[in-house]
Design brief:
The protein is of the alpha/beta class and 199 residues long. Helix content is 24%, strand content 31%. Glutamine (GLN) binds next to helix 5.
């Protein structure tokens, strides 16, 4: 518990599913604060980039002048980042141009890879360390992206039909699904155990 207690967590709250992430952290005994301005990053060790619409989030990050502070704090090893769905898109190397991304996660993405909103689905995930569907760990995929061209150095935490859907590397965690929408705390616990790493 002491490792969790040492973290100071923020959730980007420009658009999208921020409250559910605050609640997921609360279930682990961690109070997360909502972040909208660069100065609100001060003192944080961890920041969640929630799902939403990555093109809208891209515009809001520009409007609130958050691109460089996020990149710099992450690269300096001060801020671990967790991107879910649209947040994972923003962390990635991109998806062929639009929207521009932070380029911190060595993977590309294909947006809306499973179809439209009506094609959203819930599926049991395969945990990479435990082959086969894992009891109790469910992924909620809402107009989800797919990771493509994943750097083999990244640690795959979970797969769906053999494809990576959760990736981890020092200071970064990214899921194409919404772990904050289930009662499971597996991925948030992993995130809070991550340490920021200079890159
Ligand atoms: N389809 C959205 C996008 O491309 C992501 C959806 C989500 O975050 N649930 O930005």
């Amino acid at each position: 518990m002491s490792r969790v207690a040492a973290v100071r967590v923020g959730v980007l709250a420009l658009q999208g599913a921020s409250a559910a992430h605050v609640n997921a952290c609360a279930r682990l005994g961690v109070e997360a604060r909502e972040v909208r301005a660069p100065r609100e990053l001060d003192g944080l060790t961890h920041l969640v980039l929630p799902g939403g619409e990555s093109t809208t989030l891209h515009h809001l990050l520009t409007l609130f002048e958050l691109w460089e502070p996020l990149r710099e704090r992450h690269r300096a090893g001060e801020l671990a980042l967790f991107g879910t769905c649209a947040g994972a898109i923003l962390l990635s190397r991109g998806c062929g141009g639009k929207p521009p991304t932070l380029g911190l996660l060595e993977a590309e993405v294909e947006r809306n890879a499973y179809g439209r909103q009506v094609d959203s689905f819930t599926r049991v995930l395969e945990l990479a360390d435990e082959p086969g569907p894992s009891a109790g760990l469910t992924g909620v995929f809402i107009r989800a992206p797919r990771f493509v061209r994943v750097d083999p150095a990244l640690h795959v935490l979970a797969r769906l039909d053999g494809e990576p859907v959760a990736l981890e590397t020092p200071g970064l965690l990214a899921t194409t699904f919404h772990p904050e929408l289930t009662a499971e705390t597996h991925f948030h616990r992993r995130f809070l155990a991550l340490r920021a790493a200079a890159v």
